[in-house]
Amino acid sequence: MRATAYMQDEGTAMKVATGVDQYVKYRQSMGIGFVGEKGRLKAFAQSVGDIHLRAVTPHAVRRYLDGNGPITNGWLHKYHVLNGFYRFAISRKYVSASPLPLNKLRRQRLFVPYIYSVADMKSLLKAASQRYRNCWLLSPATMRTLLLLLYGTGLRISEALTLTVDDVDLHNRILTVRQTKFYKSRLVPVGIDLHDVLLAYHRKHCVDAITGDEPFLTDRKGRRIAKQTAQHSYKLLREQVGLHRPDGSRFQPRLHDLRHTFAVNRLISWYRTGKNVQQLLPHLATYLGHCSIRETQVYLQLTSDLAQEASMRFFQYASPKAG
Questions:
Q1: What pLDDT, in 10s, does the model give residues 99-156?
Q2: Domain boundary among 55, 73, 91
Q3: Which one from 156, 195, 260, 266 is the annotated catalytic residue?
């Protein structure tokens, strides 16, 4: 029964691409954007080839789902999208049953963020300042400031890029982060060394700002930096210095991992100074803009093997005063 479960009932044969187009139009007619899902379904159609829906085998589906890497959130998302597509196809009698695996697989392991060491940060900053290519969209000063801002505050990338000139209060050393992930605004104090970095950038790049709502960090053309641009520029920089995971993982260090690094370093600092970490976690959660303390507690799992990577002396190196 299972060997023929994916065969189509008699009727008009429909090719995979046509079925995908009908499903996408159906979902979008319900007011759903369905952009990412559409991309995955198009990739599925390309993966199995120009064949009829009834000819898609469980093996072809698994080949698309598995790709070349481990079970990740991407695998699970592809499974979820295909599951919805085949429910649609079955309801329209395009196929009699789904060729998806009977049991949705679990992730083989949890994703572990990359925690940057002092040596990592020095390499990135040196490359940004000395070997940065002029053809890249972000200037050396902008890339360097962005790295230090994320490392020193734990801001989300989108939060850092949407800061305006008025949001960076250099007199009181406070950043105003407005209406972010959970539609909340918050104030983020910064240390003296990071303040000096931001002040130096402001004096060089923001003095000509006409209004306070202009972006604080800009690309070479003075425009607000797109998230994809920042991530791509960082990828080029990381590849230039040869920074990669030593365990051969397919997941390489990301800009977002600087947020994890900030949180881990803060926790390690508290541990080393004998502070009550559980009592202080709500403060860290508020600083990071987490909706609940549960999100912040995830970082506790990273500290035991990474205490040696902590560096509370980093900004002595990074600040302009240190040259």
A1: 998 776 655 455 678 889 999 999 999 998 876 666 678 999 999 999 999 999 999 9
A2: 91
A3: 156
